[in-house]
Amino acid sequence: MKLSVVIMAGGSGKRFWPLSRESKAKQSLALFSEKTLLAETIERIKPLAEDITIVSSLKQRAEIGRDAEKYEKVKVIYEPCGKNTAPCILLSLLAIKSKCSEERAVLVLPSDHYVAEPEKFRKTVKKGLGFLEKNRESIGTIGIEPAYPETGFGYIKKGKVVENGIFGVESFEEKPCFEKAEKFVESGNYLWNGGIFIFSLDPMLEEFKKLTPDIYETVNSLKSFDMPELGIYDSLRSISFDYAVMEKTEKPLFTVPGNFGWNDVGSWKAYFDLLPKDESGNAKVGNAAFINCRNSLAVNLTEKEIVMFNKESELLVATDDAIFSATLNDHAKMREITEFLDKNNLKKLL
Question: What is the pTM of this model?
Fold first, then answer.
């Protein structure tokens, strides 16, 4: 089967404020090279893909379009409003189906993750595709071998071996407390759920029709899958693909464990962890100097010089229109910042 890739590129631009905004979410940031995370995602999977469909929001049209237009066989669908991942994925599948008559394998990817070893990632995908080719009714995930107990991810519990290096799925686990996460990792039976899915196009459309008939009928009634109408799309209930399909399906599930240097880059702290450090554990992007500082991060997109003095685990971000100071341990509270801006006549900074 040929492979169609769906890249989910929504997001509200909150976690990486002030670098990210509503019109420029994390996938449109160039965090590790001159290319954005979205461009890196496209280039990572393009050698295997027949075509790529990006699903994003209208607010991000300028930024997403700038990346997409650089590549052949890459199209973008702009949702008029966000309704979580189940409607997003279904919309893209119906768009793919409307343009090809043959059966396809589909790989669903987030747009804003970091992968240190792209070739290992592609080998893992190919392994899953090989299994899917022989088991077309199955639904698969690429699970991430956990490097440490993490409470911010869901987990996949591996079942029995179904093929060399491929497992059934016993259960999906919600984000655990630390003690539970420790037990998951120590057991060796769990993988991080990185939101990477693989399945056959037609069986998945039938599964949507069976498990979420209201969503299927509404999305299928759109006059255009490429430019969905706000009135119809806004009437959809918001639900994730995990809840709508993965946790309810009776189809056989499989998971391919992956170890390719994956990181969801879900916070300023996660970004800091991936950057090179000086002898005191400090990291910087742009012009910055550290005096008696430890384990701190300075990100400077201006022409001015940042000087950080007597700080530990500090975060300082400077853009042309905002300067943000916090501790790196405040990453779980970033929504409080954008909520404050929204309520205090500072929406221009969102």
Answer: 0.93
